[in-house]
Design a protein that fits this description.
The longest helix is centred in the middle third of the chain and has 14 residues, at about 110-125. It is built from 7 helices and 10 strands. It is of the alpha/beta class and about 230 residues long.
């Protein structure tokens, strides 16, 4: 009797429910072995939508992404509608050259942020895009997911923790909660077995936690619709 073919040998999008899927997309190492071991492909997926749902902002999400952002910073890294003004010294302390960071201010209109994100993703000129949004309609999530698939940009959407209850096309959704010395990561959705217990991930202290000055903000750009033509064109 011939041996039974494994699901992945039939198609790369198939996997056993008891194991992590073999990622069909490129991945970038997270820089944290414990986290990479829990992700399909062993890292953050490129060319797709990844959701990070935060209990509150500033709990270590940038430090979590730091190794991947450093790897992506050979091309511009876009911070779109962040809740606070990015600080040049803090970014440099993380190994992120401020000259490679593009800050696009929040205009207060979700349509502007969605339009800007689509232009960045479809242009293929940026190594990473971080987008902060309080609310996102399901059809807009699908638009962003499709736009992300047109390139190999690391794309992370930051949303409130309550969004974990909503449906999403993102193949990877993580809920982040603060913890002493690091963060707790809950795997809301991944291509693999369900993990009930959160993963505690130690994080290095931030520049603020080391009592350094953070008084040098990045220069502000124009609103999204005026900066993106320059970004995409150059």
């Amino acid at each position: 009797m011939p041996p039974t073919a494994t699901p992945e040998s039939l198609h790369p999008s198939l996997w056993l429910a008891s194991q992590l899927a073999h990622s069909a997309t490129r991945c970038v190492d997270t820089g944290y072995a414990a986290l990479s071991a829990q992700l399909p492909g062993g890292g953050w997926p490129l060319g797709t939508l990844t959701e990070l749902m935060l209990q509150q902002q500033g709990i270590g999400e940038i430090r979590l992404l730091r190794p991947a952002l450093v790897a992506a910073s050979k091309r511009p890294v876009v911070l779109l509608a962040p809740p606070q003004i990015p600080q040049g010294l803090a970014l440099a302390a993380l190994g992120l050259p401020p000259s490679q960071m593009v800050w696009i201010r929040n205009t207060g209109k979700s349509g502007d942020a969605l339009w800007a994100a689509e232009q960045v993703l479809r242009s293929g000129c940026c190594g990473a895009l971080l987008l902060w949004q309080q609310q996102m309609r399901s059809e807009n999530l699908r638009r962003l997911h499709l736009a992300a698939q047109s390139g190999d940009t690391l794309f992370c959407l930051m949303r409130p923790l309550a969004a974990a209850q909503d449906a999403s096309p993102a193949p990877l959704r993580l809920a982040l909660r603060p913890a002493p010395g690091g963060i707790h990561i809950e795997f809301v959705k991944r291509r693999g077995p369900q993990r009930d217990a959160p993963l505690f991930l130690p994080l290095p202290p931030s520049l603020l936690q080391r009592h350094a000055s953070l008084d040098r903000p990045l220069p502000a750009t124009a609103p999204a619709r005026s900066i993106l033509p320059q970004l995409v064109g150059g």
